[in-house]
TrEMBL record:
It comes from the Bacteria. InterPro entries: Holo-ACP_synthase (IPR017557), MdcG_C (IPR049180), MdcG_N (IPR048903). Residues 6-76 form the Phosphoribosyl-dephospho-CoA transferase MdcG N-terminal domain. GO terms for molecular function: nucleotidyltransferase activity. The keyword Nucleotidyltransferase applies. NCBIfam families: malonate_mdcG, PRK01293.1. This is Malonate decarboxylase holo-ACP synthase. The keyword Nucleotidyltransferase applies. It comes from Candidatus Companilactobacillus pullicola. Keywords: Nucleotidyltransferase, Transferase.
């Protein structure tokens, strides 16, 4: 099977590929995109853990898909490599989280970074999912660790464009918030395939 990681977007062939039926709020939304996001959770009986997102924060639905039903994999990093924000409809480019991306790209030009969350979903599917108030969820696979001062400086640069941007640091199947790390005085939360854990030093050297 092709490598699939948390935050990847999977285009599937049909609604019936989902292991569970759709909630009512998704019936009119999901069939338009047929795209799910890979959850950070263990596989179950060979099935990939995925989620469906709606326009509201509470509209989140966890389910599973069979790898054989996946037509296409879109990673957050491909969206950056292709500068996907350039192909968004003009009326959507005024959203702060999308408008900021060319400038964010300049700040992160030396980083292996990607776009996740509602903005990443919209860039990948052309389905309106970001709002004027949407944060910018970014992911970053680091080559090396950075100290808290450098983390604060980087976040300051990312957050000067009128939208709140946070970078989730990806290390294998684990991830943590750079913002939480930068502001921590003791432990921070590390997301894993199982339950989150508290760690003092999140970097894997």
């Amino acid at each position: 099977m092709v490598e699939i990681n948390p935050h990847d977007l999977l285009k599937i062939n049909t609604v019936s590929a989902l292991s569970d039926g759709l909630p009512s709020w998704a019936n009119s939304i999901f069939p338009n995109s047929l795209t799910v996001v890979v959850r950070r959770s263990p596989m179950k009986a060979g099935l990939i853990p995925v989620g469906i997102r709606g326009m509201k924060r509470e509209h989140r639905f966890a389910t599973y898909v069979d790898p054989k039903d996946v037509l296409e994999i879109i990673t957050p990093y491909e969206l950056v490599e292709k500068k996907a924000w350039e192909s968004v409809a003009l009326e959507r480019q005024v959203l702060p989280a999308i408008e900021a991306l060319p400038k964010i790209n300049e700040v992160l030009q030396d980083y292996h970074w990607g776009i996740s969350g509602s903005v990443g979903f919209e860039l990948a599917t052309k389905t309106p999912s970001a709002k004027m108030t949407s944060d910018l969820d970014l992911v970053w696979i680091p080559k090396h660790s950075i100290n808290k001062q450098k983390a604060k400086e980087l976040l300051k640069r990312l957050n000067q464009f009128g939208v709140h941007a946070d970078l989730q640091v990806i290390q294998g199947n684990n991830g943590f918030s750079l913002e939480e790390y930068a502001n921590s005085t003791s432990t921070i939360m590390m997301k894993t395939l199982g339950d989150p854990i508290l760690v003092k030093t999140p970097w894997l050297e």
